[in-house]
């Protein structure tokens, strides 16, 4: 019966039933506060100011305020600290890494065609660090078998049975090419004795959970790697003594890897399986483009106003997965290790645009106080092609689960001779309607700088806190973990006037 599947089905990628989800949309749409130590030390509130290359990432008009060419280089040491609560278990994880965080420059030229000044700039920012991880350990009344059961319902038993000439690799690959990712999950659960068919008839499409009525000891290890980056190419002009305009053309890239390892054990007498290990590796690669427009107006010698607009980022994303399942119990040791990489058809993701309004007060040569407000509607995120029923449904989930986000950034700097002292605060609202899924970000920063000649050295410390309650898996296995996350960074920058 299996071999009677029409050849038309074989030509359809499994991508459209692969579990892209709302969390993916949020991950690839979020850019953290990154940049030079001066920028980070003031909480990123630079939308109406200049004097720092990273300011052009908020408002591209900022480069036109430079009177001399300027370059900077920044390194950061980033640390995450996760406290994870899973049912009756509590675990703590921590890690850190050192990266090139920023590199850029602004080059000033004489104005032409009535312009006071023209500037051109470029900047690289590591916009998101995906290096993270947590361990969720505890007991549960739900088994991982629920995950496989949810995908199995409606799947013909004939598809899950090995034929005499088939291997595990053959059938797993066949299901991915000819049916769906969900059929692959049903196959793993059935062959691992975690689910049972209601009937042995090959046309059967109903299944039951083979793991019932016990307390399950579970350990979930979650690790992610990678980063996202933005390359900005800037042009700006001073139109008058008070008015500045700027434009950025941005190229975005990201790579993201997620590894999960799930262990489950039980001593129940009614269960054929006593131990489970389920491994998943997911890899995603994306490239995108966007633009930014900005203006700065010097309302007086002290008061500065800024406004900018970030267009949506248009991403093309590639994904691939690998899986492993082993079980042990009454049926012996079962190892399902398909030597297969699922490679899915590329799809497009459109992230939300952003509006920013800024105001700053400059105290002569003694420093400044600055405030930025940003608005971004995460409900406008779109997976494409949205004409596909799967993506249409996913976009409806985005509409229902995500909402507009307001961001507030406040920063200041005090200058004493060659020394600069800085502080910043930021609040970024959760993009979820249910903020229990992902909480607000609250962050604080401190910084110090020293100038000598045409060179400036800056150091900053940045601290941010966010709570989250992620699902361990999509689908019928609904267990979640509650995580208190603290991210901290120590940054150092060196800048030169040319």
Description of the molecule:
This protein is mainly β and 498 residues long. The chain has a single domain, classed as Porin, CATH 2.40.160.60. The chain contains 8 helices and 22 strands. It has helices at 7-10, 22-29, 37-41, 145-152, 157-160, 168-178, 181-191, 389-401, and strands at 70-86, 89-110, 117-129, 132-140, 195-197, 207-209, 216-238, 243-265, 273-298, 303-310, 314-329, 332-336, 342-343, 347-350, 354-362, 367-377, 382-384, 404-416, 419-428, 441-452, 455-468, 482-497. The strands form 2 sheets. The chain has a 14-stranded antiparallel β-barrel. Strand 18 (404-416) and strand 19 (419-428) form a beta hairpin. Helix 6 (168-178) runs antiparallel to helix 7. The longest helix is centred in the last third of the chain and has 13 residues, at 389-401. The termini are far apart. The model is unreliable at 1-17 (pLDDT under 50).
CATH class identity? Mainly Beta
The level of helicity is 10-25%
Cα separation of the termini: 74 Å
Please, how many domains? 1
The radius of gyration computed from the alpha-carbon positions, rounded to a whole number of angstroms, is 27 Å
Number of strands: 22
Sum up the overall morphology in one term: elongated
Number of helices in the DSSP assignment: 8
CATH topology: Porin
Q: What is the structural class?
A: mainly beta
Strand order of the largest sheet: 1-2-3-7-8-9-10-15-16-18-19-20-21-22
CATH architecture: Beta Barrel
What are the secondary-structure elements, in order, as H or E?
Answer: HHHEEEEHHHHEEEEEEEEEEEEEHEEEEE
């Amino acid at each position: 019966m299996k071999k009677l599947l029409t050849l038309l089905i074989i030509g359809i990628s499994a991508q459209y039933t692969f579990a892209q989800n709302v969390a993916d949309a949020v991950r690839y749409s979020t850019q953290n506060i990154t940049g030079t130590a001066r920028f980070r030390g003031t909480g990123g509130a630079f939308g109406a100011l200049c004097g720092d290359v990273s300011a052009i990432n908020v408002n591209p008009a900022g480069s036109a305020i430079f009177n001399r060419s300027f370059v900077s280089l920044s390194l950061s040491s980033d640390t995450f600290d996760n406290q994870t609560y899973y049912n009756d278990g509590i675990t703590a994880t921590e890690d850190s890494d050192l990266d090139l965080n920023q590199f850029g420059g602004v080059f000033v030229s004489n104005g032409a065609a009535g312009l006071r000044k023209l500037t051109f700039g470029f900047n690289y920012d590591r916009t998101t660090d995906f290096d993270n991880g947590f361990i969720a350990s505890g007991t549960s009344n739900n088994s991982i078998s629920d995950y496989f059961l949810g995908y199995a319902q409606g799947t013909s038993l004939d598809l899950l049975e090995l034929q005499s000439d088939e291997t595990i690799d053959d059938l797993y690959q066949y299901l991915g090419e000819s049916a769906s990712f969900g059929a692959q999950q049903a196959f793993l659960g059935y062959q691992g004795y975690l689910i049972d068919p209601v009937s042995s008839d090959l046309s059967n499409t109903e299944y039951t959970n083979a793991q019932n009525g016990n307390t399950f000891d579970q350990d979930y290890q979650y690790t992610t790697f990678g980063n996202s980056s933005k390359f900005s190419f800037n042009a700006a002009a001073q139109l008058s003594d008070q008015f500045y305009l700027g434009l950025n053309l941005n190229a975005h890239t990201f790579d993201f890897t997620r590894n999960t390892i799930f262990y489950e054990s039980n001593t129940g007498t009614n269960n054929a399986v006593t131990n489970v290990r389920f491994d998943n590796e997911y890899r995603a690669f994306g490239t995108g483009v966007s633009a930014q427009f900005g203006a700065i107006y010097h309302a007086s010698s002290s008061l500065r106003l800024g406004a900018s607009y970030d267009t949506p980022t248009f991403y093309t994303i590639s994904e691939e997965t690998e899986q492993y399942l082993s079980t042990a119990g009454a049926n012996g040791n079962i190892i399902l290790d398909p030597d297969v990489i699922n490679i899915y058809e590329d799809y497009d993701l459109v992230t939300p645009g952003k509006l920013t309004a800024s105001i700053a007060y400059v105290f002569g040569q003694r420093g400044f106080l600055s405030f930025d407000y940003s608005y971004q509607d995460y409900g406008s995120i779109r997976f494409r092609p949205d004409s596909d029923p799967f993506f249409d449904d996913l976009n409806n989930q985005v509409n229902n689960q995500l909402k507009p986000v307001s961001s507030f950034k406040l920063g200041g700097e005090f200058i004493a001779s060659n020394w600069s002292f800085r502080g910043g605060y930021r609040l970024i609202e959760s993009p979820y309607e249910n903020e229990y899924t992902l909480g607000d970000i609250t962050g604080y920063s401190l910084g110090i700088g020293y100038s000598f000649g045409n060179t400036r050295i800056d150091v900053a410390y940045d601290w941010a806190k966010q709570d989250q309650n992620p699902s361990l898996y999509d689908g019928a296995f609904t267990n979640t973990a509650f995580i208190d996350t603290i991210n901290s960074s120590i940054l150092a920058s060196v800048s030169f006037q040319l």
